[in-house]
């Protein structure tokens, strides 16, 4: 592998490393399982734009530092006033990955849940460590509605089973469902992802870009982007603006995620 240069951005909430033919984007908030706050969202978008504009970069890897890819959105910023910076959401990150003509590989260890799972599902290929876990547990804490990425990855039946229960699946189940391309030992995750990136980078560049855009275009003709952007459709207003559980919302605001999960799961615990 060629010598790499590393650039830290946005107070090191994200690391960007480039070799001669691919870039590695590392979410770098390991102490909080790389949850996406505003700074990390902005840094991720900036890194994706940097990789997209760099003609030497032929493939992109996105991964997380520490023991998780990402545990989703940063609940500590819920309800806080917006600042003056660009307002980037997790869906914006996913759509940026989707629209990039360069292949994006997700290298996942530990949790990739909530909005982070949606981002992973928008990538082109997923390599999972043996301890990887995937899911959208928002329903368990009365959280926001999911982006409808999962049905396109797993089909309607498995999506309903996962979304309506908040179940988290392991890497082996994700591979069996067709979500994960390959499971590798934890200590070889990045090595395997970079080997795949280099293999793709060795292919004819124009053909790689055309093939990705062609496959994506087929899904778009089937309504993929319309389903992702359903919140903008007035026909869904009664759902997207519907009531939320006020007691659980109050618990989240006052005591956080762990209290939510404990309250939600209590009836299902065996005595």
């Amino acid at each position: 592998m060629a010598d790499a240069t590393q650039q830290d951005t946005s107070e090191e909430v994200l690391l960007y490393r480039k070799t001669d033919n691919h870039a590695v984007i590392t979410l770098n908030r390991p102490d909080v399982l790389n949850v996406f706050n505003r700074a990390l969202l902005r840094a991720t978008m900036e890194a994706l734009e940097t990789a997209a504009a760099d003609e030497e970069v032929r493939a992109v890897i996105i991964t997380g530092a520490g023991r998780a890819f990402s545990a989703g959105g940063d609940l500590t910023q819920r309800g806080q006033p917006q600042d003056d910076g660009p307002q980037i959401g997790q869906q914006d990150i996913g759509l940026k990955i989707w629209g990039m003509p360069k292949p994006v590989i997700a290298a996942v260890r530990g949790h990739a849940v909530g909005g982070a799972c949606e981002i992973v599902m928008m990538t082109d290929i997923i390599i999972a460590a043996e301890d990887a876990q995937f899911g959208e547990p928002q329903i368990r804490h009365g959280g926001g509605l999911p982006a409808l990425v999962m049905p396109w990855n797993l089909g309607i039946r498995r999506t309903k089973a996962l979304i309506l229960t908040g179940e988290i699946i392991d890497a082996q189940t994700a591979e069996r469902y067709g979500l994960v391309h390959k499971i590798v030992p934890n200590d070889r995750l990045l090595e395997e992802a970079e080997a795949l990136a280099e293999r793709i980078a060795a292919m004819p560049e124009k053909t790689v870009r055309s093939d990705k855009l062609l496959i994506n275009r087929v899904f778009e003709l089937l309504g993929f982007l319309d389903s992702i952007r359903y919140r903008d459709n007035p026909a869904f207003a009664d759902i997207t603006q519907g009531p939320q559980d006020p007691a659980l919302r109050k618990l989240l605001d006052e005591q956080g995620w762990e209290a939510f999960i404990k309250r939600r799961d209590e009836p299902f615990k065996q005595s």
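The radius of gyration is 19 Å. The longest strand covers residues 22-27.
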